[in-house]
């Protein structure tokens, strides 16, 4: 089926078009430049930017894919989680489009999109699989029995998300927003063993109750204290070493828990998804550790990890393939939609 996917949950207006699992177009307009001076996404600014970008982005996607929108079989749109005002722009556009084309509309989960997007790059997913979802607002381990119908969260962060930790640490190092890509780049020139930062929820007693959970706020505080002490001592802050050591702490915990979850649940595949899945160290360390125990790693190309419309079209394609009923035309946005709800009712 030919599916159009519409994404507007945060600061990217994304329109993707897929035929089955073939990616035909993926146009993204980001309002990130408007948020830089605030050091984070300003919801009202993001909503306005979506409003002006959505139709031009839709037009570009249809041109790139070289399809007539009348040929589309179904429309998929992010119903949540995300910023309410931002979500409503995409949902309203999707409803108008689906009503005009007289085609079914699916309000789908953004987080499932971060996982499903890999199917566009690597095809059918072996089931069951374990997914490591690492984004700006979420960090969880998922047991995926069926990507359209059966996803169970087996662990999640008890405080900050991984991307949030990157952004906060970048900020305290005086680096620009968003911090993830900047730290990734700067860490390449640093020594990951220079400073031993804490690995959250990995102590023996934590593993009893929080085996598959994460915690990054203690790490962020440890980095802040370390940097502060250097400054008090009148010493320069070795930014590359701090970035590399922080990154190593994050990636060490994420990868060891992902492999543990896959082994515990008897899955042969780990699927990586979310904005932080673009991280070069996470990609290589997870590959090393998964392969060492005979687990296959699947990860989308870095360009598909951060928010886009293709990931939403990918979910649409899977739910249509599974024969799920469309969403009712009166569905709304859900700012904290759980990952287990793939399609809203
Ligand atoms: P969510 O998907 O949870 O609703 P979001 O959509 O805002 O949140 P994403 O777009 O999935 O988040 O990811 C953005 C996050 O990814 C930011 O925190 C950003 O710093 C981080 N990120 C992007 N590229 C990298 C990278 N190369 N290394 C580390 N982090 C990165
Ligand atoms: Mg973004
Ligand atoms: Fe996202």
Automatic annotation (TrEMBL):
Binds 1 Fe(2+) ion per subunit. Its main location: cytoplasm. Keywords: Acyltransferase, Cytoplasm, Iron, Metal-binding, Transferase, tRNA processing. It is found in: Cytoplasm. It holds the Pfam family TsaD. Residues 22-313 form the Gcp-like domain. Fe cation binds at residues 110, 114, 307. Substrate binds at residues 133-137, 167, 180, 184, 279. Belongs to the KAE1 / TsaD family. Required for the formation of a threonylcarbamoyl group on adenosine at position 37 (t(6)A37) in tRNAs that read codons beginning with adenine. Is involved in the transfer of the threonylcarbamoyl moiety of threonylcarbamoyl-AMP (TC-AMP) to the N6 group of A37, together with TsaE and TsaB. TsaD likely plays a direct catalytic role in this reaction. NCBIfam families: gcp_kae1 (TIGR00329), T6A_TsaD_YgjD (TIGR03723). This is tRNA N6-adenosine threonylcarbamoyltransferase. The lineage of its organism: Bacteria, Bacillati, Actinomycetota, Actinomycetes, Propionibacteriales. The gene is tsaD.
